[in-house]
Structures are given as structure tokens and as C-alpha cells.
Amino acid sequence: MGFIFKPVRWVLGQIVIFFDWVTRPKPVERPYEIQKEVDAKTRNMALYQFKLCPFCVKTRRQIRRLALNIDTRDARNDPNWNLELINKGGKYQVPCLKITADDGTVKWLYESTEINQMLDEQFAA
Ligand SMILES: N[C@@H](CCC(=O)N[C@@H](CS)C(=O)NCC(=O)O)C(=O)O
Asked: 58: CA distance to ligand 1 center in Å?
């Protein structure tokens, strides 16, 4: 039966991606200098994610809506990101936002709702 799940998951994923694309949110517009400050703050963030995961779509939409330039890392297909997420983040679950502070300390923030809330608190206009 396992062989059924993969294609079904793939088809559902494609549908999610399609509706995400059709209804994609419009990014906020900021004055150039303010956007530069925001970019400086998000430079130390990276989103570990899967392309077809609905929770990742939710967080990517938030990133788009807030016009954030956050690096996305494919934790399913890229073995480097996959291993880093498991070994340093602590578990194989996406989305996960890696935040590196100026002093080098790293925080791994799991759960789409928590990530979206944090981004909203920091960057909503
Ligand atoms: N409550 C979590 C759910 C995240 C979740 O279930 N992610 C799935 C992908 S859609 C996952 O990481 N699965 C790990 C795996 O495939 O082994 C959230 O909202 O972020």
C-alpha cells in the first residue's frame, strides 16, 4: 500500500502549490532604506523546508507577504541541509527557521504558526 501514498502525496502537493500560486499574497512595499534594514535583519535567517509541504507553503506565503529575503533550504533533497536540520535543529520536521544571532548563537524555530507569528511581530509594518 505504501506505493500509493507517494503519488497521492505528490498530487496533493501539486494542488497546494497551484492554489498557492493562484492566490499568492502581494508583498508589502517599504521605502528603500527600511527594506535595507529589514534585509540586514533577515540575512542571518534560513528556512529549512520541503517544496510540497503545506505548512511550508504557509510560512513561505508569510515570507512573501512581508517581503522578506530569507534563504530557503531544501531539507528533503539536499543531504547537507537534511543532516544539518536533524543534527543541529534536533528533529526532522519542516518548516524550521534557523536564526543566527550576531554573537553566533543559533536558534532553531520549529512550527509554522510560531515562525509566522515571530516574523509578523518583527516585520509587519
Ligand atoms: N505542526 C507542524 C507540522 C509540520 C509537519 O507536519 N511537517 C511535515 C511535512 S508536511 C514534516 O516535517 N514531516 C517530516 C517527515 O516527512 O518525515 C507545523 O505547523 O509546522
From this structure: 12
